[in-house]
Amino acid sequence: MSIEVADICRYPLKGLNAEKLERVTLTPGQGLPHDRRFALAHGSARVEPGAPQWQPKSNLLCLLRDEKLAQLRADFDPESGMLAIHRAGKQVVRANATEAMGRMLIGQFFDGFMGAAGRGTPKLIEAEAEMFTDVRDPLVSIVNLASVKDLERVVRQPVDPLRFRANFYITGARAWSEFVWVGKEIGLGPARLQVVERIERCAATNVNPDTAERDLNIPRSLQKGFDHVDIGIYARVTFGGEVACGGVLCPPE
After folding, report:
1. pTM of the full predicted structure?
2. Range of 205's domain?
3. Are 150 and 231 within one domain?
4. Residue 75 forms beta bridges with which residues?
5. pLDDT value of residue 26
6. Is there a smaller number of Cβ atoms within 10 Å at the N or the C end of the chain?
7. 208 and 155, same structural domain?
8. Can you tell me the distance from the alpha carbon of 139 to that of 148, in angstroms, rounded to the nearest whole number?
9. Each residue's pLDDT tens digit, 198-224
10. How many domains does the chain have?
């Protein structure tokens, strides 16, 4: 049975929902285009909006502490720069996230939405040259749906794979087989990637992406069932190309 790409996801605004893509072009040394391009720095963070750099999670609003973010949905149009935020199916703010005025308007919305948890007015920051991911390096993340299914056996209820906020979700691989790929090269369509490490999971995965409630303890379940807290792998793009849903992943030989 071949290993295939089931879903491709990017997260333009860190902490908010996935945008599903049919295809994406990978470039060596870069992550998915527009993935985690924007983030919300809390009001007390010392971040320069005009020239932001990679930031630790302690400076940003994120699901680790701010599960309320999962109540919102974001839609980003890279061509126009427009970022729209929806709550309960209704648009609550829409502005050009690449311009100072638009970022201010979006920050003002999050000021009211987050209240005291925003620690002042949150600042929407943008970094085209970097990504506001949990690691400094521009990597892509891959989650094996068979591993998530095996986790469900321990949790004894369905686990939405979107809790793990991966870029690529794959099907057809044996559960946990992706961990033996670390340090090796894989093919993803025409692209080549070097798998660099397993992804250690934190309490952000406890948040239900549909209800915004902390209804599971994923790290504890992983530790209990498998003696580790990892799901997914990080990989570095070494040779680019277009990857589409249904494309084949070639594991190491």
Report:
1. 0.95
2. 3-31+135-250
3. yes
4. 84
5. 97
6. C
7. yes
8. 21
9. 999 999 999 999 999 999 999 999 999
10. 2
Place of tokens 């946990």: 176
The strand pairing partners of 40, in sequence order, are 124
Strand residue runs (E) in the chain: 3-10, 19-21, 23-26, 38-41, 72-77, 82-87, 90-96, 123-126, 140-144, 168-171, 185-188, 191-200, 230-239, 241-244, 248-250
Beta-bridge mates of residue 96: 82
């992943």: which residue's tokens? Answer: 249
Instruction: For residue 154, give the CATH number of its domain.
Output: 2.40.33.20
Query: Do residue 42 and residue 100 come from a single domain?
Result: yes
Return all residues near 150 (Cβ < 8 A) that are at least 6 apart. 175, 176
* 31, 39 Cβ separation under 8 angstroms: no
Are 246 and 140 in the same domain?
A: yes
What are the tokens at 4? 């295939």
193 and 238 belong to one structural domain: yes
Among residues 56, 38, 57, the alpha carbon closest in space to that of 124 is found at 38
Spatial CA neighbour of 109 closest among 98, 94, 125: 94
> Is-contact 40 127, C-beta < 8 A?
no
Domain boundary pick from 105, 126, 147: 126
